[in-house]
Amino acid sequence: MTSAHFVTSKRVEFCETDLAGIVHFANYYRYMELAEHEFFRSLGMSIAQNYPDGTVIGWPRVSSQCSYQTPARYEDVLEIRIRVARLGVKSLTTEYEFYRSTSCIATGRMKTVCCRFAHGVPMTSIEIPQEYIEKIRVAAPDIFVETDVRSEQNSAE
Amino acid sequence: MTSAHFVTSKRVEFCETDLAGIVHFANYYRYMELAEHEFFRSLGMSIAQNYPDGTVIGWPRVSSQCSYQTPARYEDVLEIRIRVARLGVKSLTTEYEFYRSTSCIATGRMKTVCCRFAHGVPMTSIEIPQEYIEKIRVAAPDIFVETDVRSEQNSAE
Amino acid sequence: MTSAHFVTSKRVEFCETDLAGIVHFANYYRYMELAEHEFFRSLGMSIAQNYPDGTVIGWPRVSSQCSYQTPARYEDVLEIRIRVARLGVKSLTTEYEFYRSTSCIATGRMKTVCCRFAHGVPMTSIEIPQEYIEKIRVAAPDIFVETDVRSEQNSAE
Amino acid sequence: MTSAHFVTSKRVEFCETDLAGIVHFANYYRYMELAEHEFFRSLGMSIAQNYPDGTVIGWPRVSSQCSYQTPARYEDVLEIRIRVARLGVKSLTTEYEFYRSTSCIATGRMKTVCCRFAHGVPMTSIEIPQEYIEKIRVAAPDIFVETDVRSEQNSAE
Q1: pTM (2 decimals)?
Q2: What is the pLDDT at residue D2?
Q3: Which residues, in sequence order, are CB contacts of D77 under 8 Å at separation 6+?
Q4: Which of C19, C30, C73 to mutate to test the interface with D (most CBs of D within 10 A)?
Q5: Which residues of A touch B24 (CB under 8 A)?
Q6: Given a cut of 50, is residue C150 above it in pLDDT?
Q7: Chain-wide mean pLDDT for chain A?
Q8: Cα C131–C136–C139 angle (5° rounding)?
Q9: Closest approach of A73 to chain C, Cα-based (Å)
Q10: What ipTM does this complex have?
């Protein structure tokens, strides 16, 4: 990771460990989400933004992945570094590094898609609203913003 | 417990244990809920029942408790016995026993209240609809059904 | 609660909510534990204390309970107030209040027992070591400490 | 997936949903693990196998990933299909498909490494014992088994 766009920390809780004495692997995804939501909050955005017309803009997952180098343990304080890897027309891809002290113990990646939720209607993917793009660009000024639907369709995953 | 009104089983999963090598205590509440929902399903009811007018009848918790006698471990198959302890005007109280083989290893209790959820309106407690009462009585014929609001208010918790 | 012995806060995470849009009731037990562990840490103690001889002193649950007045929601910041309710010979009982702003939205209680874990030996309850008692008394000076096994056996649960 | 080596099913529980009304994305990893452990159990193996000398053979994660096509909801019954994708010298890679009725709603993949856990010693990766290989080959006869460390080191991840 060249440089992180946001950094937060998380102390491992007892209930997040398993009988092997280490953090259960599925919890890294909760940690990534926690960091992502704090990142959004730091930009004055919410991952579940209510609008006056009763709709909600949310960000369901398209894919997620994590690689584990070294186990984390109870009471470890992990530093989580986020980088915006790609800002597509409808999707946002973020990358994560988990540090314990100076060691990177895990890395991850999530792709989410911007969706509108309205009561009684299936959720629909939408183009990321301009206000979101502007805020993300403030945090991640080195990000190339794709503005053409065709470019997103052509880009490799 | 004189006799159970419904019995189900649950195998302990790896992710439900903690570093002490035993099931994390908060997971017994998930197990109780799992059993409760299976009990509802066995009666042709859902804990989150959608109605044609868009409202949902649900059962949020008023209180829950659990006592732990012996720890449960990975791959243990627990038998969970439910008993309807009280069917109030608006509330339902259920009791739980967790068995591993012939030993009771934990007991619990939950009180839930029947509520209507409608879009854009705070959830409101309602009298338990007659169809629910009838179905619960089929499973728990020995239950005294309170039909007078005053009796519920006067009854000791 | 006359006065809290320790206060901490917890922001509700997305993954802690359920389809009813509120915090799932079992998560309050994780929150209590989180607060309890921070309380221990604030006293220079750990809920899982390793000793040079390879044994661990831990605190498994005997019982837990929670009452829910008002639901908590995503991004709510809850203040959790702990009070040591009873310091027995082998057990510790703590009480919890959850506040959102100035409203108490839930209360809870947990009883734990001090145990020694050694490799290959079943965990055994032990008298709470004096160093723990002294630290807890610093935080909770108004607590009556029971020092006689007989008194614990006689005390009502 | 050409053909699955093991198939199981899982009903979505209430506590596995989030405020968006769908299964929280991190839970798919618990589902994969659940299926993997049932697969092991079906072969007479355990994911945490105790040996008479006090050591345990376990399978910590190296990496995990999941792609989400369609959300799953409360009470959905998901069919989970596992395929052994690769049986390395020390590692096992499994692939997953989640079906609701006839639709594939998600796919996943996990790589685990065979490790020995002994008391007081850091966990160490080991060559997969022959008895495991034989049992896995019974379930997945079409799998090419790598028996040379060099081949594993050279193989692309």
Answers
A1: 0.93
A2: 63
A3: D9, D10, D11, D12, D100
A4: C19
A5: 14-15
A6: no
A7: 91
A8: 135
A9: 12
A10: 0.91
- List the single residue in B18, B54, B74 with the smallest CB-CB distance to A15: B18
- B114-139 pLDDT per residue, tens: 999 988 788 899 999 999 999 999 99
Residue C23 CA to residue D14 CA, distance in Å, equals: 12
Token pair recorded at residue C31: 């929150």
| Phi, psi for residue A35 in degrees, rounded to 5 | -65, -45
Tell me if C30 and A48 make a contact (CB, 8 A cut-off).
no
| Chain A residues closer than 8 Å to B74 by CB | 19
Structure tokens at A14: 């007892």
The Cα of A134 is separated from the nearest Cα of chain D by a number of Å equal to: 25
Q: Inform me whether the pLDDT recorded for B113 exceeds 50.
A: yes
The strand order across the sheet containing A91-100 reads: A6-11, A77-87, A91-100, A103-113, A61-68, D61-68, D103-113, D91-100, D77-87, D6-11
CB contact under 8 A, C17 and D19: yes
Dihedral class, residue A101 (left if φ above 0, else alpha if ψ from -120 to 50, else beta): left
Sign of the Cα pseudo-torsion (D119, D123, D128, D134, in order): positive
Q: How many CA atoms, within 13 angstroms, populate the side-chain half-sphere of residue A32? A: 27
Could you tell me if D45 and D38 are in contact, meaning their C-beta atoms sit under 8 angstroms apart? Answer: no
D122 pLDDT higher than 80:
yes
